[in-house]
């Protein structure tokens, strides 16, 4: 149960399509071609489903 809670903490929901995804998964798939990904957290995230890019805000995290 504890492991599930920790993984849910890293979930984020796309404001455009509503798809929930893990931040690390998006960084590996959708952000892989971006030169800013090598610098660390740029403050933006791209939805791996619809490719919408949006700023990461605490209120977007699903709990």
Polypeptide structure, described:
The structure is a single chain. The two termini are 14 Å apart. This protein has a two-stranded antiparallel ribbon. A two-stranded antiparallel sheet has the order 3-4. 24% of the residues lie in helices and 19% in strands. The C terminus is likely disordered. The chain has one domain. The chain has 63 residues and is an alpha+beta fold. It has two helices and four strands.
Number of strand elements:
4
Q: What is the domain total for the residues?
A: 1
End-to-end separation in angstroms reads 14 Å
Biggest beta-sheet profile: 2 strands, antiparallel
For the biggest β-sheet, the strand order reads: 1-2
**Run of helices and strands:** HEEHEE
**Number of helical stretches of at least 4 residues:** 2
Q: Structural class given helices, strands, pairing?
A: alpha+beta
Helix content: 10-25%
How much strand? 15-25%
Q: Give the overall shape.
A: globular
Low-confidence stretches: 59-63
What radius of gyration results from the CA coordinates? Answer: 12 Å
Average pLDDT: 77
Structure summarized in a few sentences:
By secondary structure, the protein is α+β, with helices and mostly antiparallel strands. The chain contains two helices and four strands.
Features:
63 residues, alpha+beta, two-stranded antiparallel ribbon, 2 helices, globular, disordered C terminus
Helix and strand arrangement:
Blueprint: H1 2-9, E1 11-13, E2 20-22, H2 23-29, E3 44-46, E4 53-55
Antiparallel strand pairs: 1-2, 3-4
């Amino acid at each position: 149960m504890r492991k599930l809670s920790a993984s849910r903490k890293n979930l984020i929901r796309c404001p455009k399509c509503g798809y929930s995804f893990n931040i690390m998964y998006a960084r590996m798939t959708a952000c892989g071609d971006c030169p800013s990904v090598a610098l660390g957290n740029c403050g933006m995230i791209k939805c791996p489903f619809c490719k919408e890019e949006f700023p990461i805000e605490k209120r977007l995290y699903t709990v």
